[in-house]
Amino acid sequence: MPDSADGALRAAAIALLQARRAGRVNADDEEAVLNAAKHSGISAAAAAIAARDCALAGLTSDEPFARLAAIISRRSNEAPAAARAQCGLAALRLRKRTWRRLGGKVRFSDDAALAELWDYSKSRKKVTQTPSARGGFDWPPAFDDPSRPLVVDAGCGFGALAAALAKARPHVNVLAVDRAAHCLLYGDGLAHRLGMTGRLRFACASADEALHWVRECYEGPLRAVLFMFPTPPALDERSKNAQLPQTPSKCLVNAATLRLAARAGHAGETCVLVASNVEDVAVRTRDLFASLPEFRVLQAKECGLAWPRTPVDGDAALRTKRWIEAGGARAVGEDFLGASPVPARTETEGWYEKESRPVYRVAGVVCKSDL
Question: What's the per-residue H, E or C state across 277-317?
């Protein structure tokens, strides 16, 4: 009987997630999960997976999560190791005793939860929605106190970093935007369930749209713009990936967008941070900051960080090897940041650090905002 109960819950949760990813919001889908979770024979493993899927679907109601948490609490001694990360990703409210039985508490911003999110993201095809669709997300965004400093997370993906940043820095507002509305569901659901919607907003919009809105409408200062792991441009004509932007000007981080960030920001106050797992992206971004009169490159020592002193060659990716062969500069020296200045990470950042693979970071500070 547990297998059939588990199967019914799994089917209901999958149907809910697929519907939400496709932009269909139907109360019957959520009700189906609630009804399936009533069965007494559901295992802790099935409840944890369903909680993860409900979180990824962006459910804002506490009821499904409370019901699934109750099942996990009753049967936590039977829970597999994976349940711990799945409960953390879903931000389940479990008792201390239950967390101990699972192996220790996991927050949605912890390594284990980020690894679970990474695994999920790699198992799904990328789907891009144009900003005109909006995916049911409000535009323009509205904050409870628009005089607070603002951080814009451009191309935020699932929004794990934005949610963790809003939780860690309650004195700032965070605007997280992405053109793929289905990704925004997870972070938006967290914002609602953790009571942060007054200062954490998600929107299906482009970086340029968001920065135009900040410049024209936002009352408070723009503190930072984050571009975390933007899609890199094709390195050269040998690139066989047609999905990559074919020129740097078509990338998320380009001269026009950076100038717009400068006009939306304030000299000496606004910082733009770019993180990438691609070395030539970091080098080109550093060069772009240096070439624009609106910016200066932020030195690692200015924010108390170490900087990379030697290049990473041993396990360099094929793209990096081709970059080096072509005479490309290396991401070393004080122009590059040896660690993140942001008190939060994306699932991509977490995975690369866990695998001891390099993450390249470069930042620019606005020095002229009225050009």
Answer: CCHHHHHHHHHHHHHCCCEEECCHHHHCCCCCCCCCCCCCC
pLDDT < 50 regions, the chain: 1, 131
Express each pLDDT in 184-235 by its tens digit: 999 999 999 999 999 999 999 999 999 999 999 999 999 999 999 998 887 7
Nearest to 247 by CA among 255, 131, 211, 276: 255
Q: Nearest Cα to 226, choosing from 25, 348, 27, 363?
A: 363
81 bridge partner residues? none
**Burial level of 313, CB count in 10 A (0-12/13-18/19+)?**
exposed
Q: Please tell me the total number of residues recorded for the chain in this structure.
A: 371
Distances (CA, A) of 152 to 69, 80, 323: 33, 38, 30
Domains (ranges, CATH) in the chain? Answer: 2-106 (no CATH), 134-366 (3.40.50.150)
Sign of the alpha-carbon dihedral angle for 35, 38, 41, 43: positive
d(CA 61, CA 91): 13
- The predicted-structure confidence for 131-157, as pLDDT tens digits, reads as follows 456 778 989 999 999 999 999 999 999
Whether the full predicted model's pTM is greater than 0.90, yes or no, is yes
* DSSP codes, 196-229: -TTTEEEEE--HHHHHHHHHHH--S-EEEEEEES
Examine residue 232 and say whether the peptide bond preceding it is cis (omega within 30 degrees of 0).
no
What CA–CA distance (Å, rounded) separates 201 from 210? 12
Write down the residue that tokens 């199967």 correspond to.
7
